[in-house]
Amino acid sequence: MLRRLYVDNYKSLVNFDLELKPLVLLMGPNGSGKSSVFEVIGLLRDFVGGERSIAECFCTSSLTRWQRGNVQTFALTLADPTEPDAVFGYTLEVEHERIHRVCRVKAERLTHNGKPLYESHLDGAELRAALYRDNYSRGPDVLVDWTRSGVASLQPRQDNQRLTTFKGRMRRVFVIRIDPFRMGARSEGESDTLSLDSTNFVSWFRHVSQSDLMLPSRLVPLLREPFPGFDSLRLVPDGQDAKLLMVKFRSGSPEDLRGEPYECRFDELSEGQRVLILLYSLLSAFTDTRDAYTLCMDEPDNFVALREIQPWLHAVMENAETSQCQALLISHHPELINELAITHGLWVERAPGGDARAMPVGDDQTGLSPSELAARGWLHA
Amino acid sequence: MPRRFSLVVILCEDRQQECFVYRYLRHKGLSRHSIRVRKAPSGKGAAEQYVRREYPSEVMTLRARSGSSAGLVAVIDADGLSVEDRLNQLAASLNDASQPPRQPQEPIALLIPKRNIETWIHHLLGQSVNEDDQYPKFFDEQRKCEPAARAFAERCPNNLDDAPPSLQAGCVELVHLLR
Q1: What is the pTM of this model?
Q2: Residues facing residue A106 across a β-bridge
């Protein structure tokens, strides 16, 4: 579980500290910094995973405009899924040169229960890193590339399994802001991650249905409720390596299994139906798994019919209680706000033109619904 | 210049009341973002019961944010009762919710059109009215209430001598709220 996130000097996030629980709903006005929080989580995952360079993640234009400092600081605390009560601490400092609009890693540090697993810092013009073994004893010092994550560059070894565990856990952080208009039916290959806008959903679905053969047995019953006549999902070959996701329905009443079957390409469904299939696929993929996941979903309720929101939300809540799947949500939707605000909500707000702050939500006992209070900007304690 | 509100909540029975008070507040310089409307769901029984039921919640919410420069306008038709009866009912609903009575310094205005909001609008549109008869409802609420709300904003507080007493009382409430 992602337990804490600290961000300084990134967009509207200045000295921004966020404590996280298994289920969190971030609420607040437009432009308050909610999506920036998810953005940072996704960028740290990509950087630590070695997928993107420092400049691709943290360009100079992401510096807070009203701050003069040239250093951005990011820190997160992540529960170690292999050891109860143990935590990883990861800190990244990014130094920018505003005039030339370039940046580099100033320092990168990974700890396990406060003890070092990896440390790097700028030494003059060089980024010098100290490597540590799983028993925290110091290994060799090396020079590393300041444009990339040193943690990402280390290959798995017998004596750095903790560091490898951390990287594996970071790969199981998903940050999505679903754009159904861009979700196609065709996949050229498998992918174990979902892109921010979920355009590679079918590739991810290929991967999870390949590695988890029980997935359809969990997913299909969930999809039969919102989709009358839904029968199954099927990946069919479409060229050498490509596959198409097909959705099979049966005509007639939902109970009539003798109805005439017919199939649609995934991208022939409505936007809302595509979003629902994605949302339930995510839940099904992360149920009954021993692996820990963190799902950050920015306005998952977009495109979804009102009557579908609460059943899906209840499934998320059950998942957060019974599995190791952490769900962090951003929403303006009254259904989510009324259900989650008091127990799992954080209100993010900025002073005019100033820094973002996350505040707990208070139950003011006045009888007004949380969404009504949120509409007035009165939800926080 | 009215005092600056971060938010004024209009608690009302129906679209006609909402339209009238909303337009009045807009004429008095309040922005769209500083007005929030809560009106009874249509087709859900007596709308006046909704206002009486929700009034204590709104007062409690307001009192919990006493430093927030927020205000409340509650609107409820007198119908067959007197204005005094309606005021007593609202006071009783506060008492039932274990809330102290409305205090003069609190930013709460109670508008009680007698016999109902249409009485006020017909008067403000230049017709002769009394507070006992029922006047026809407007089907084109938006168009009818805009000139009436504008007339009210222009005539309140200095030019309402010939107005129904409940409208004069409503004017005093709003002037007190916005002072």
Answers
A1: 0.88
A2: none
